[in-house]
Write a structure and sequence with these properties.
Layout lengths: L2 H6 L5 E3 L8 H9 L4 E4 L5 H14 L4 E6 L5 H10 L4 E5 L7 H6 L3 E6 L2 H10 L3 E5 L5 E2 L7 H11 L4 E4 L5 H9 L4 E4 L1 H4 L8 H7 L7 E4 L6 E4 L2 H11 L4 H8 L3 H7 L23 H21 L2
Parallel strand pairs: 1-9, 2-3, 3-4, 4-5, 5-6, 6-8, 8-9
Antiparallel strand pairs: 7-11, 10-11
Helix pairs in contact: 2-3, 3-4, 6-7, 8-14, 11-12
Length: 313
């Protein structure tokens, strides 16, 4: 055990990233059942849909699970009321000020972690009273830090800045990467892409198959003026790049993005005009296993790497 497993009451310090259009109740329950901490991604759900996912997750597993909530969500009050009413044990917040909801949630007995991309904001999280910080590097999929700090650089900076449990995220899909994060000071890992590409992920089959065919360099950080996001290179990405290269304004970029494009790409499988978000590490993955098998392989490789590192001396 370490501080992360003890905090959340889990077997392995492995947390499912709260992913839009991938992280529904099936995936969250599967990760929790396998010994990690499953998170339902509320960012793509209306409040009533989230409530349905929470109820189904509670029916599918009696182990701890949580919800990831982007704090910029337009219906945040309703979301939080549902989380509290349903007695969700863990909430991971992101994309906003952790002071806004941390005390309210903790007063209800809920464990709170917040996702950051810099040591400056990690300190603010600790001051806000969160139980743990997730430090997410530039390699991650979806929305990202504009500083473009890599996980290998970010984790030791954040470790020096805070005393509370630290969870590493971004570019972690293997036991070797987990060991590297621990060597740099992390006590847990948050993993998105590996679990997005599993049987229980709610992403479309078309999206999953594309992701496991990606090569190194097939994703890029884009949309920096309106919210840096790592995207797969497709026709929509080409339009984004052309607009950015021509100096398009934030308003013009918002107009180009439109509404529902991530759902169209990830959930509905439009590989041409969809917004296809996935982590850089996807190019290392070539299978779509059950979540339990994916987590088990990470743990197995981690233990093998630990043993091998001791055998070196």
């Amino acid at each position: 055990m370490n501080r992360v497993t003890e905090l959340f009451g889990i077997e392995y310090p492995i947390i499912l990233g709260g992913m839009v259009w991938c992280g529904g109740w099936r995936l969250a329950a599967a990760v929790s059942e396998a010994g990690g901490l499953g998170l339902i991604g509320a960012g793509s759900m209306h409040p009533e849909v989230l409530q349905e996912h929470i109820i189904k997750c509670k029916e599918a597993t009696h182990k701890p699970f949580g919800v990831n909530v982007p704090l910029l969500y337009p219906e945040i009050e309703r979301i939080m009321k549902i989380i509290i009413a349903e007695k969700v044990p863990v909430v991971f917040t992101s994309a906003g000020n952790p002071k806004t909801w941390t005390k309210t949630l903790k007063d209800e007995g809920i464990k709170v972690a917040h996702v950051v991309s810099s040591s400056k904001f990690a300190v603010k999280c600790q001051e806000a009273g969160v139980d743990a910080v997730v430090a997410e590097g530039f390699e991650a999929g979806g929305h990202n830090g504009i500083e473009e700090t890599t996980t290998m650089v970010l984790i030791p900076h954040v470790r020096q800045a805070i005393d509370i449990p630290l969870i590493a995220a971004g570019g972690i899909a293997t036991g070797g990467a987990m060991l590297a994060a621990f060597a740099l000071g992390a006590e847990g890992v948050q993993i998105g892409t590996r679990f997005a590409l599993t049987e229980e992920s709610s992403a479309s089959d078309e999206f999953k198959r594309l992701c496991v065919s990606l090569k190194e360099g097939d994703t890029m950080l884009a949309l920096k003026k309106i919210g840096a996001t790592r995207l797969i290179k497709n026709e929509f990405y080409d339009k984004v790049k052309a607009a950015e290269d021509s100096g398009a304004s934030a308003e013009q970029m918002k107009e180009l993005l439109g509404k529902g494009r991530a759902k169209r790409g990830i959930f509905e499988g439009d590989l041409v005009e969809g917004e296809l978000e996935i982590g850089q590490i996807a190019s290392l993955l070539n299978d779509l296993p059950p979540a339990k098998e994916a987590l088990g392989q990470i743990v197995k490789e981690y233990n093998e790497k630990v043993k091998a590192s001791f055998d070196m001396f």
